[in-house]
Amino acid sequence: MRTTEQARSLYLAELPLIERIAAAVARRNGVTGADSEDFLSITRLKLIENEYAILKKFHGRSHISTWLTVVIQRLFLDHKQREIGRWRSSTEARRMGEVAVRLEELIIRDGHTFDEACGILMLNEKHAVSVGELHWVRVRLPQRAGRPVLLGMPRDTDATTDGMEIERAAMRRERAEVAGFTSIAIAKGLLTLSPRDRQILELRYRDGVNAVEAARRLGITRQQLQRAITRALAALRLALEAGGISRQMALDMLEHESEELLPQFASGSSKP
């Protein structure tokens, strides 16, 4: 085993490498800014405490960069485990309900992939939801640092930004899939509405006609128009529920998506 002086010399010689690896581990796990600096301070402290006890264990049987990567990743795992002990569901997850809270726990707290979380929710826990609905919930959950992700060999630490870009691209694809799921659900719902209700929604959301002009074209007052819109959206919500979408999710879809999606898809609502 190394002496304290040898371990201290190793620490000082490799401090730039230690800092690079610690920054890469933090960045790979979505930890940035002050939180990243905190982890770097924790890493330095752990490596020097008890007279450099950790560094005394390095016997030179592997490359120092490889060994330090393993050590620092373990330090990060310990650091995150202490934080997970204080886990709290996000406000948005609680607002969306039980399934959203559980999905957030599985993905962010427990580190499951989205597909694994779907399997647990739908097969193991028997929640009556579809993959599309879970996609819709997933992209609305706030971004939070989850279970640590291990780096590859240290030579890959400079490439972590590539990994982050891959993750961002995956999120963009996921959002596109969710938009597709939502738009299809709404388009199907529109097909079930009466011609009059479809006309009202098309005027307001597809054509962007203001309330005064829409009321004039329909031959009704603005108050009657507002009641008609409320009735049409309620009918659309019921149609979404009849298609297997939960009540809360149907409400959220119409709250978040109507002005964005109805303009795009209401034009196809009268097609068979």
Number of helices: 12
Strand content: under 5%
The helix-strand sequence is: HHHHHHHHHHHH
Low-confidence stretches: 152-164, 259-272
Distance between the termini: 78 Å
Helix content: over 70%
Count of beta strands: 0
Structural class: mainly alpha
Biggest sheet descriptor: none
Over the alpha carbons, how many angstroms does the gyration radius reach? 27 Å
**Whole-number mean pLDDT:** 76
Shape: elongated
Features:
mainly alpha, disordered C terminus, 272 residues
Describe this structure in words.
This protein is mostly helical and 272 residues long. The chain is built from 12 helices and no strands. It has helices at 4-28, 33-56, 64-84, 91-96, 98-109, 114-124, 131-138, 160-191, 195-206, 211-218, 222-242, 247-265. Helix 1 (4-28) packs across helix 3 (64-84). The longest helix has 32 residues, at 160-191. The protein is elongated and about 90 Å long. The N and C termini lie far apart (78 Å). The model is unreliable at 152-164 and 259-272 (pLDDT under 50).
